[in-house]
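Morning!

This is the sequence you dropped in the shared folder:
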Amino acid sequence: MKKLQILLLFALTLAACNTKKDNVTIKGKIINNKNGEMLYSSILDETCNGWFKDSVTPDSSGLFTITLKIDQPCFISLSTNSSYKQIIIEPEETYEIEIGEEQIKLINQISDAQLYYENLPASYPNGYGFFPVDVSGYDSIYDSLNNKLENELLELRKVNCSEDVRNLISADRQVYYNFAISSLASRKKMASYRNNETTPIDVMKMWENAVPDTFLTDIATKKSTYYFDLLGMAFWYNLYTKLDYDSLKVIRKEKREQGLIHTYNIELAKKLLPHEIIEYYTATYIQSKAKQTKFEKEFIALFNQFKTDYPNSKYIEYINPSIEKIVDFHDKIKVEFNEEYKFVDNYENISSLKDCLIPFKGKKMYVDIWSTSCGPCKKEFEFNEKLKETLKNKGVEMLYISLDGDRTKSRWKDMIKYYSLKGNHIRANEKLIADLREKLGGFGIPRYLIINKQGDIVNSDAPRPSNLPELEKQL
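The structure's back. C-alpha cells below.
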C-alpha cells in the first residue's frame, strides 16, 4: 500500500506541474426554468471543494454559460435545489448539460473516464452503514479496501483517456480509500476505548500510513473531492498520538462549555497539520461549520482572525455571507417573544402525541417535527410566510415539535425567534420521541403530520411547506 502510494505521488506531482491556464466552457439549459440559480463548485487552486460555490442565473430561456480557467483536468460539482452531478473537466473543452426536474445530464463529452468514474463506489466512508458495527475484523476489512483500490486502478489503466485525467482519478481514489482506512482505524480505536482495551499497534500504523504529510500536501491529492475529509482524519490521528482520550474528553468538554471548541480545534490544527495547508483547512473548517446554520457566535471572531492571518485569501468572499447570517441571527434573537409564539404548558412532561394534541381539541392541526441541527428542516422555514397565510385561510393550527435535547434548548428558542416560527411549540422528551417513532414507524426529519378535529392522524407524511399547492389540497 505504501509503495503504491509513493509511486502515485511521484507520477501525479509531475503531471500537475503545467502552469498554462486555458478556458473551459460549460453551457447548460434548465428545462423547466424553475430551479433559479445554478450552483457550481469554485475552482480555487484547482481543488474541487463543495463548500465554496459560485452561481450562475439562467436567462429567460433557461440558458446559461460558465467559463473557467484551469491548467489540468479537475472535478467540478454542479447542483440545483433538486439535483447534483460531478463531472471531470479538461482545459480547452466545452461541455453541454441539461437540467431536468431531478437530474443534471451531460449531453456531450460523455467520456469513458466520466462513465468509469460515475460507476465507482462513492458511499461516504465515515457514514452510517459503510462499516459493520463490529470492526473486530478490521484487518480483513483493511485488506479488502486495499484490494478494491488496486483493482480500480488496474481497471483505470484500460480506460481510454488522457494521462492527466487518469492521474486525476488515481489520486482521487487514493484519497477516498485513505479516508476509508482512517475511518476504519478511528472506529477500531473508539471500540477499544469503550471496551477498556489497548488500541492494537497495527491499527495506529495503518492510520499513520493513510495520512502522511507528503501525501496531504501533494498537488494531486488536493484535487480530490474527499481531500478535506482526509485532512479531518489526519487531524484526529495526530491528536490521538499527542493526548490520551480521557484527557481529551475533559479538555473538549471545557472548551465546548466555554463556547470555544472551534477555536480550540483550529489552534490544534495549526500545530498538528502541515503549515502549507492551514489556510485551506481553516477556511473550509469555518465555512463547513457555519453552513450548518447552528449560528455559533464563535465563528464571527474566528473569521475576523482568519482575515487578519490571510488578508488576501481567495476564500474570504465565499465565507463572508455565511458569517453575515450568523451576525444577523444574533441581532434578531435579542427581541423578546410576543403572543404569536406559544409554548405548550408543561411541555417538558408530555409523553405522547395524544397528550400533545389535548390543548388543541376540536382543531385541525399541521404538525412540523424538526430539530435545530436539521438543515432540510430549516430550509423549509423559507416558505413560512405563505404557509401561515394558507393555514389561516384553512382554519388550521400550527404545532412545531422539536427533537432537541437539553444541551440545545437555548438554541431551540433562539431559532424559533430567528426563523419567526409563530405558532405552538413543544420540545419533545425521550418518551414523546419514542411514541412518535412507534406511531410513525420510525421517521426522518423534517416530518409533517395533518391531524383532524378528532385528534386522528389523517396524513402521517404530509406535504412539506415547499410543496404548498399539494398541501393546500390535503388541508
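Headline: The chain is about 45% helix and 20% strand.

More detail when I'm at my desk.
O.
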